[in-house]
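Recap from last week: sequence in, structure out.
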Amino acid sequence: MAKTKNEKAIERLRNDKDYYGDYGAKWMSNSDIKNLQEDTFKQFKGRPEDSENLVKGRYFHQSILEPEKIIDFPIWKDTEIRGKAYKEYLAEHGLVYMLKESEAEEIQEMIVNFLSRNEQLTKLITHNDAEYEVPMVGEIFGHPFKAKADIISDGIVIDLKTTSANTIQKFIYDGRNRYFYDTQCFIYQTLFKKPMTFVAVDKNKRYYNNTKEYYWEIYVCPASEETVLQGKQKVEMALQLYEKYYGENKIDDIKQVIYNSKF
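Predicted structure tokens:
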């Protein structure tokens, strides 16, 4: 049986170069919705420059979801400081930030701790029926959207996060008010037609009382109806900005926009 247009697209979007490159640009994503907020909508379709948090997060994800790629992950092993040689290497290889070997080792240690703390969670993430890096496309409010699930397991979409929130309450607050995890919930649940859960590892190392034994806190946060509804509303508002400044029938020139407010 011949594959549908969407099935062919999904198969191609499994490749990161296509997903994040020109081919994938024909679909909107949660990153685009984030950029379409009022204070950054001039950067629509822009990709953020690598930073410490982005690189560490990518290494964490690949180590769990695509461990075969870790051998090619750039790690700075020559010195423990980011001095002249480090900066010259970055410039030579077109990089902005690179993990030091000690940082990569700590992330690997964090992953071992994460995957050994709770039997039920470990099974959910690692059992044989779990699918990793699963793309999906579909239409939301008349616009083509794409998403790539970290994990689909036991009928739910799981998104892995690293955080410095220090508490689960702060992780939830920041996710809904700063990082657009609420819009991610709405987009992913709409496209995959499955409930979504965030599983986050707090990067702040902690110690059990009066011992030298340490651990990293784990937060498991299923998406609530309230969060999904908030995400839906924010997606609608972002798409209104898109149609105003980028759509086929756009009515305003984004280059003419300035901010105006009483001081």
